[in-house]
Amino acid sequence: MKLTRPHFKSSISTVALRAPARLASSTPSTPSTPSTPSTPSTPSTSSTPSTSSTAPTPQSAFTMIEIAIALGVIGFALVVIIGILPAGLTVQRESHQDTVIGQDGPFFLEAIRNGGPPLPNGASTSLDFLTNYVESITIIKSGSAAPLIYTNDPKSANYISNGQMILGLLSTPEIYPPVYGTNVNSVTARIRGLTGAATEQRGSNAATAFRYYMNVELVPFNATGNSISYQSTDFLDYTNNPNGIDYLTRLERAEEVPYLVNNLYDLRLKFSWPIRPNGTAGQNRQAYRSLVSAHLLFNTNHNVITWFFQPNNYSTNDYLGL
Predict the structure, then answer these.
(1) Residue-wise DSSP of 163-222
(2) What count of Cα atoms within 13 Å lies in the side-chain half-sphere of residue 312?
(3) What average pLDDT score do residues 169-180 get?
(4) CA-to-CA distance for 209 and 279, rounded, in angstroms?
(5) What total of structural domains would you count in the chain?
(6) Cα separation of 301 and 303, whole Å?
(7) Which of 115, 134, 275, 286 is nearest to 211 (CA)?
(8) pLDDT tens readout for residues 254-311
(9) Does 37 map to a domain?
(10) Among residues 178, 108, 175, which one has the least CA distance to residue 137?
């Protein structure tokens, strides 16, 4: 059978055209990559928005009446706070002053009780720091026209040179014995607070520092009257047994009574504060009191009369300071 050329060419072309299709079907297919989610399309700006999207959203706010009420409440609170602030400052200041007196009082009480030996004028002692705080000591004597005023001003004629001099002046007894003129003495010291803020120490802030008066009363023990109980000295009721303990003890106490006036003293420190600019004291008061059993030694140094307790000595003399 004879084939014609056109038919043969058509068969070849058909096979050639179909072959890629078979090859493509035989090649393993590659897994397809997940498609990326499409981004929402932005609305066209050219389009005209609807009327509902352009309407303003309602917003809540304070009215003028509410603002006025709030300002009124704040103003009332500020008035109350400003009114309470001075009262709080006053309470704080008074508490501070009470604390200073509570610490300074026992210090001076113990200093006077412990006493010490009289030293030459200008001698250094552990109490010399008191010259920065004791501004003046005034001694008013009965029958004297002018008081004796000692100050810590170096230009003063009665200059307080050291702490021992301060202690000796503060220990002046209220009543002099007859051998010294029988004067009645009033001793008052003007003192800056020993304790407190550091800004008030050692002469700082002289204009605003806290000051107080300290009045010293040193009264000899009264050996007459009922100062000693009758049962303690009534040795005569036990003369039937002069060697017994009842008789001997009461006799010894009776012999001590006349000398108690030279060895037993009632020490009182009376504080008044604060000192006002005009020199008067405020209404605050505090007192400290103690009995001192010691011999009171009289001393004169550069015409300054000072007194010092001697706790280790017991005097059997009839007068103070001998």
Answers:
(1) HHHHHHHHT--SB--GGGT--BEEEEEEEE-SSS-GGGSTTTTTTT--EEEEEEEEEE--
(2) 2
(3) 77
(4) 14
(5) 1
(6) 5
(7) 275
(8) 777 777 767 888 999 999 999 999 999 999 999 999 999 888 888 887 788 899 998 8
(9) no
(10) 108
Task: Single out the residue of 216, 218, 215 nearest to residue 281, CA to CA.
Answer: 215
In a domain, 187, yes or no: yes
Buried b / exposed e along 208-223 (16+ C-beta atoms within 10 A): ebbbbbbbbbbebbee
Only one residue has tokens 């001694």, namely: 139
Write the DSSP assignment of 10-53 as a string of letters.
Answer: HHHHHHHHHHHHHHHHHSPPPPPPPPPPPPPPPPPTTSPPPTGG
CA distance 161 to 128: 8
Domain of 96, in residue numbers: 84-220+254-310
Measure the CA–CA gap between 231 and 172, rounded to whole angstroms.
33
pTM of the model: 0.68
Residue 273 placed within a domain: yes
The C-alpha atoms of residue 161 and residue 139 are separated, in whole angstroms, by 17
Dist CA 256 CA 253 (whole Å): 5
Burial of 92 (0-12, 13-18, 19+ CB in 10 A): exposed
Which pLDDT tens digit goes with each residue over 13-53? Answer: 444 444 444 444 444 455 555 555 555 555 544 445 555 55
- Torsion-angle region of 10 (φ positive above 0: left; ψ -120 to 50: alpha; else: beta): alpha
Asked if residue 315 is part of any domain, the answer here is no
Which amino acid is residue 10, in one-letter code?
S
Q: What is the token pair recorded at 309?
A: 């307790």
Computed over every residue of the chain, the mean pLDDT equals: 78
**Contact yes or no for 308/297 (Cβ under 8 A):** yes
